[in-house]
Amino acid sequence: MPDDRTARTDEIRARAEADGVEFIYAMFVEMHGKPCAKLVPIQALDALMADGAGFAGFAAGPMGQDPSSPDILALPDPDSYTQLPWQPNVAAMQCDPTVEGELWPFAPRVILKRALAKLAERDMVLMGGVEAEYSMVQRNDDGSLSVADERDVDQLPCYDARSLTRMLGHLTEVSSHMNAMGWGNYANDHEDANGQFEQNWQFADALTTSDRLIIFRLMIHTLAHRRGHYATFMPKPFGDKTGNGLHAHLSLWSGEGKPLFPNAEGAPDPKGLGLSELAYTFAGGLIDNAQGLAAVACPIVNSYKRMGVGAPTSGATWAPAYAAFGGNNRTQMIRVPEPDRLEVRLGDGAANPYLMFAAMLSCGLDGVDRGVDPGDVNTANLFALNRNEVAARGIATLPPTLLHAAEALAENEVLKDGLGMTPDGPYRDYFSQVKRDEFMKHHHQVTQAEVDLYLTMF
Predict the structure, then answer these.
(1) C-alpha to C-alpha distances, 363 to 108, 366, 413, nearest whole angstrom
(2) Domain boundaries, the chain
(3) C-alpha dihedral, 264 to 266 to 272 to 274, nearest 10°
(4) Angstrom distance (rounded) from CA 443 to CA 331
């Protein structure tokens, strides 16, 4: 084991002993964001840190392997060590998968780290925060879903203090755990759908935020299970209720820690939002590449049931339907809540954060490099306009299905570069094909809704 790795191992051992940690989750995620882990006793820490945890990659999910492939050895990142407050004798460490001694380019965390390393060559850092919405549900005897809190039935439940109070035990436990992990929880609320919640923590660099989101999802699932419920980040678990988003707040900072998106004092600001030219062109790149970006930010069939046009009245949508840009306006893809960041509202609860941040970064930098104008600042309620009116303003409609998005991704050269290469070709192509297959598998199923509609129509 190299000396620096030995020193980091000693550091982790000391922390684990001080924390009373007996086991380590050696974790990584596959394409879908599923947390894969091995439970490693602390007595085996030396071997874990030196050699990694072994996995049969084909069994884990889409990782670019087949049953004949060599093992994935997942090497823990010491900086990601996190004691799990809800199971305090366990800590989690996010890992970078390797195959035969080389970082595995199908691994989402590896893809993001490589994208961030290229950004560092520009002396820049990507900072990010996320708004992770989820729903608390229960499975009924017939397999259907219902809201876990049977009293949460109001037509306008958003921010309702009574529903918040009934879930106080869960929400305060999550808040306490986030703060124990040093994340800085600053808000917890009941969202727009019955049974839907959002709990926020402070932004950080994109890799740290991604690691934390994976832990957050694991925590929410675990605590819901202990209460006899299910938690879901599924984009649209109920057809008549608002879906679960994953809004991403993005900003570029200099390597010295200076935020680069606020406009310099006295500098021209033709759009009046207080952003720098760098920020405007970054937004332009996101808008210009939105069709392919949607496949990564909205990566499952169900994602496109969250997106639609119509006024959000606690049963419709707050999700963008158009690739639009503007100020403090929640009907578009990019909102500017403050002149220090962009809120990209495209992503949903199924998004893999490592891939989403890598894709958004590459699209934004494409806009910077080409000087792309994001368009006029939109102040209209896009949900109230018909598609022809929106098109007349030069605003593109986002893809209507996963198949449309996957096909747009397959043709996007910016995302080809941004997601990197694998031994088999661009990761973009691998991702696109997995998503095409996913769509077709769903498309070939005959649903009850089809039977109800068509059985006696003809």
Answers:
(1) 17, 5, 10
(2) 3-104, 116-451
(3) 20
(4) 29
Q: Are strands 23-29 and 90-99 parallel, antiparallel or unpaired?
A: parallel
What span, in angstroms and rounded, lies between the C-alpha atoms of 380 and 179? 39
Instruction: List, for residues 35-90, the tens digit of each pLDDT value.
Output: 999 999 999 999 999 999 999 999 999 999 999 999 999 999 999 999 999 999 99
Cβ-proximal residues to 342 (8 Å cutoff; 6+ apart), any chain: 249, 250, 251, 261, 279, 282, 283, 286, 334, 335, 336
Q: How far apart are CA 355 and CA 130, in angstroms?
A: 14
Separation of alpha carbons 314 and 155, rounded Å: 6
State which amino acid sits at residue 429: D
Question: Within 10 Å of residue 240's Cβ, how many Cβ atoms?
Answer: 10
Q: d(Cα 292, Cα 448) in Å, to the nearest integer?
A: 31
434: part of which helix (H) or strand (E)? helix 427-443
Count of alpha carbons within 13 Å of 349, Cβ hemisphere only?
A: 24
35-49: pLDDT as tens digits: 999 999 999 999 999
The residue type at 380:
A
Kindly report the CATH number that applies to the domain delimited by 116-451: 3.30.590.10
> Vertex 153, ends 151 and 310: CA angle to 5°?
160
Q: What is the CA radius of gyration of the chain?
A: 22
CA pair distance 250, 412, nearest whole angstrom: 21
Q: pTM for the full model?
A: 0.96
Q: How far, in Å, CA of 414 to CA of 57, rounded? A: 28
CB-based contacts of 154: which residues, under 8 Å, 6+ apart?
160, 163, 194, 314
**Fold of the CATH domain 3-104:** Ubiquitin-like (UB roll) (3.10.20)
Confidence of residue 4 (pLDDT cuts 50, 70, 90): confident
For residue 247, the surrounding DSSP H or E stretch is strand 246-254
